Amino acid sequence: MSLPRIPPLLLTGAAAVAQGVCARRSAPTPLSLTGAAALAAGSVWMLGGSAARFRREGTTVNPVEVDRVTALVETGPYRRSRNPMYVGMAGLLLAHAVGRRSWTAGVPLALYIAVVDRCQIPVEEKALRAAFGTDYDHYARRVPRWLDRRSVRGQGR
């Protein structure tokens, strides 16, 4: 049984709303806002830079249209992560939790990562493997799914 896929941008928005509910009693401080701003800046770089690379290569940015992929992008943020757009979205959620000084706001972040990792990314990996074969397999062996080498998985499927 496969779980229904929710567009990641909608999922990110829902997680941000849930974070607001979780952190409603937490007040930001200048220090927490400074840390959040730094995290958000790096996250926007990952998200924007990766979307720009897709557009430059002429391939779809829409995660719902995984079968319309036309290029295997391995440059820019894609040298560090196979999913820098999701890393960027998760980073923005982390920045929100840090800015609000709320560990409970981390719960929606963890759920976001789990859902994207288990429901969205495998579908994308299957489409990329079908479109690019061993080129994708070699890329997947070199570059982690998220940022950590422990997230390199899914090869040989």
TrEMBL record:
The keyword Cell cycle does not apply. Keywords: Membrane, Methyltransferase, Transferase, Transmembrane, Transmembrane helix. It holds the Pfam family PEMT. It is a multi-pass membrane protein. One of its GO terms (cellular component) is endomembrane system. It is found in: Endomembrane system. GO terms for molecular function: methyltransferase activity. GO terms for biological process: methylation. InterPro entries: Phopholipid_MeTrfase. PANTHER family: PROTEIN-S ISOPRENYLCYSTEINE O-METHYLTRANSFERASE, PROTEIN-S-ISOPRENYLCYSTEINE O-METHYLTRANSFERASE. This is Isoprenylcysteine carboxylmethyltransferase family protein. It comes from Aeromicrobium piscarium.
